[in-house]
Specification:
The radius of gyration is 36 Å and the shape is elongated. The protein has 277 residues and is mainly β.
């Protein structure tokens, strides 16, 4: 009797084990669906809105979270950059696999060319401007201990016959053997600034209309070096009192520049050489 029960129990056990094994073999593993992330642009300027789309099997997916690799998450399917750089995004949603990566390059917005002067309450458009290295000079002619780069920045309105000059210095670089190199003006290295307004009379003579040595501030934001005869950047010169009124000289975008002393231009006589016409 015991032998029969043992055989019966063993048969049932083997059957159960076989049944479980069969069930395991028949189990189906279901893969999560894929997410696809796309952006409206791969390269944009600062302040330009980028929109995203998230799909799965070519169908729109709502409610996904778009995040940067830094962990920052977007509040919607759009993003407006505030700084230059390369940013990487992915999309994620529960029950979906992580999406592909999308890289977006953000660059500075191009500066629109502008050249104008505010003088005696009048806004004056300029026909041409020029930033020019004039010479190298000693800070103190008697001591001859510090060499400076001497610059002029000029704007001209031919119809009014007016020329607006800003003269200033920047440090010079001693190359040895009596040779020097210039330093481009920046936010901190400009000194000895003064402003002159010249007026061309009917007889062709040029006379000084106004001059100022005080109350002058400058802002130079230029590229690291010129490209040919131009340099990209922004220049702004302000004077609190020139001829009894505030003065502002602005030049943005591609600025004409001459840094070769052998190719100096007499801007008072040859304005056509750098006119924007």
């Amino acid at each position: 009797m015991k032998k029969i029960l043992l055989i019966t129990f063993s048969t049932i056990l083997v059957g159960l084990l076989f049944s479980c094994k069969k069930d395991d073999d028949s189990a189906v593993i279901v893969d999560k669906p894929e997410l696809t992330l796309q952006s409206s642009a791969k390269e944009v300027t600062i302040g330009t809105e980028v929109t995203f789309t998230v799909t799965s099997a070519k169908k729109p997916v709502v409610g996904a979270v778009i995040q940067m690799t830094t962990g920052e998450q977007l509040k919607a399917y759009k993003w407006t950059p505030t700084k230059e750089g390369v940013y990487t995004f992915t999309a994620l949603k529960a029950e979906y696999n992580l999406s592909n990566k999308v890289e977006i390059k953000v660059v500075a917005a191009p500066v629109k060319d502008e050249a104008s002067v505010s003088y005696k309450g009048q806004a004056i458009a300029l026909d041409g401007t020029l930033l020019q290295l004039d010479k190298f000079e000693w800070a103190d002619e008697k001591k001859k201990d510090v060499m400076l780069s001497a610059w002029s920045f000029v704007g001209i309105n031919e119809q009014l016959g007016k020329m607006f000059f800003v003269f200033f210095n920047t440090p010079a670089v001693d190359l040895g053997s009596g040779k020097y190199n210039y330093t481009l003006p920046d936010e901190k290295n400009v000194s000895n600034v003064f402003v002159i307004v010249l007026q061309k009379a009917a007889d062709g003579k040029v006379e000084t209309e106004n001059i100022a040595f005080e109350g002058i501030s400058t802002s130079f934001k230029l590229a690291a070096k010129p490209s040919g005869d131009q340099i990209k950047g922004e220049v702004e010169v302000n004077c609190t009192n020139l001829g009894g009124a505030a003065f502002k000289f602005v030049n943005k975008g591609n600025i004409n520049i001459v840094v070769d002393l052998k190719n100096k231009k007499d801007v008072a006589l040859r304005t056509q050489l750098f006119s924007k016409k």
